Amino acid sequence: MVDESPSVGRYQVPSDILVSGWENKKHGFKEESRTSAAITLSTGETKLVLYFQPFSLAISVKGVAALQINSRNLLNFEHRRHKQADDPAGYWEESWMGHTDSKPKGPEAISLDLVFPGFQHVYGIPERATSLSLRSTNGAAPYGEPYRLYNLDVFEYLDDHPFGLYGSIPVMLAHKKGLTVGVFWLNAAEMFVDVVKTRSEVGTQWIAESGIVDLFVFTGGSAPAVLSSYARVAGTTALPQLFSLGYHQCRWNYKDEADVKMVDSGFDTHEIPYDVLWLDIEHTNGKRYLTWDSSLFPRPVEMQEDLASRGRQMVTIVDPHVKRDSSYYIFSEAETAGHFVKNKHGSDFDGWCWPGSSSYLDVTSPAVRDWWAQQFTLDKYKGSTKHLYIWNDMNEPSVFNGPEITMQKDNLHYGNVEHRDNHNLFGIYYHMGTAEGLKLRGSRVDLENGDRPFVLSRAFFSGTQRVGPIWTGDNAAQWSHLKVSVPMLLTLGLTGLPYSGADVGGFFGNPDAELMTRWYQVGIYYPFFRGHAHLETQRREPWLFGEDTTARIRTAIRGRYTLLPYIYTLFRFANTSGLPILRPLWYEFPDNEDVFAVEEEFMVGSAMLVKPIVAPGVSSVDVTLPAGARWYDALSGAVLPARTRSQRVQVTLDAIPVYYRGGSIVPLRERPRRSSVAQAADPYTLVVALDDKGEASGSLYVDDGRSFAFQQGRYLHRDFTFKSLKLTSTVRLESGVPNGTLTVPTTIERVVFLGLPSLKRGYKALIGGKHAVQLETGPLTMLAPHHENAVVLRKPGLPVTYDWQVEIVAL
After folding, report:
1. Among 153, 418, 474, 703, which one carries the catalytic annotation?
2. Torsion angle of alpha carbons 345, 351, 356, 362, nearest 10°?
3. pTM (2 decimals)?
4. Are the CB atoms for 113 and 69 separated by under 8 Å?
């Protein structure tokens, strides 16, 4: 250990990155024993043995070894020192590709080893395009280098590489049969993580350039418990507006108002639903954000109101680089107030980005974030309306003429903090300030309930889930990028950031019809669902690939809207408990060792399994349907046998394999509409997929889809259960949140049963013990009308708001 006084002043991540009051939720420890060599402590089912010399910590859960800290004696500090004439080169200054880092505080790195005994799989530490189960970093290139956490603007990133991308979450989970454990090192400096796997353990070494060791260990035992514990520290996912879970259409750039109108009308002409149309950097006046190019967008308010008349919203891009132009009000106000990041000499930093010479708001300052938030009110952001939301790109931050296309490490922030110390926080703070701006605007538009912000960010850190969604950046129109999107999004969900997506079709390049079809068929399950394309690519709106492809993409996107009640309900659980939307198979089947590394398929919540098609010309595919569950084809309703190993399934271009898990009840809305707003009064369908016991359960969450009224109890949350041939609806009560008081006039118009035993005379339903309705044999969905594998209760008129019971009786 290094004897270093706190007065040295090592940087600590500010408290607003975590949830306020988390310290009060810690459990106390009980001393079990003490010797001259060690002390043993316990809390609940977790036991800690602290060895004094050399220092190490052994943690076990339920008597099973979980984690060893410093068992390899790699906890080391580069302690602060005075400059000496014989110091090695690089201690006090480093040069690289024409850039010089002055390193005024000298070397101050920290190393830490964490060993997971008895484990073979670790997950997490995004963001990178790599496997779900992290590979060893002592292998062949490129995995001979450690995983890096350093937010960067990476151009055309590779599809299989340990190099870090746009965001960083220093969280790792380890899982083995019977146990999941998690660690979180709260440090915002550049970080490297080496992973070495043996037959008996996974060893990791973590190195941060500066800061302190502020290590959290989560020993809940299961993945849901670990993620819930992490959420109590870093926060849960902000409940998004319902529109933001629909389809988003984006391009760099839709040229002008006529182009916007043409694209919007194209969706209606081709009967494809969507919710949001996006404008990239070319909509501005010379890359001056929060402005409009008046020659291209002369009537922005009318344009937004026209979209809103059909239930649609607009998003504009707002990047963190501010054009250095004294006639630009954002620049002049910020310069006068001293709101910009400084260079090492104390002058405003001048970097190069889209507008040319640019300054960067020092969003690490609460005062600067408060000023920035005020710029989004309707009176400040001219041409904006309440239907306009925001996209933060380039907020790593990206500096075209900086080292590694980012800011110099010896730049200075609020509190005289060097950029090296808080680099990975710049993006989340910019994201925070922007989201607070939309909250402020919303509080003035709806004085009572406000308006939930929607701000997409590229850069992120732990805590970003409390602010808004992210996407995986500048991917490519390649099958390999479609494939790697799945483990990338699964990893984000496992590290507390489930509201994420990958650009459908790939940002760079020109996808063909087959790739576009397959990407949409997977993309409808991404929590954030957007199509986007580079300026130099061919136009690729969903109807531009021929009639057959248009029909397939239409079916896929409509499928997303059918699933919105289920997806929105999953987001409510993410909001209250920190649970992921997309889940690896091992999360739902934690004792099935065959699925611990499976990344070719995933669960949507607990009820649906999706198998993407990630190669061209595929007519059959291997699907793993884990044992211990009954599985139903989501198109035909046919039951499939569960096997330990994969089974071969035939596929066509019309759909990818998707399955309902037995034991689940999934709420749907099946009527085709042009947007989520147009669905608001539609009735629901319940898919009741029975398990081997003939039972099932699920829930439905409903609120106004836009405001913060749900925080005062203006919501409805119902639990559905099927047991002993009785389907019941009861109110769901959750600790820590106000009880729901919302009532809605909507009803359930269809109940589809999968797995009821076939009877010659069939079934009837007794509704409320009195009213009898004949059940019919029919299709699960009209997408497969010839497969009559379901038993359907039609038009029962069951109220969503109130308790009821339906008994299924054999005739």
Report:
1. 474
2. -90
3. 0.97
4. yes
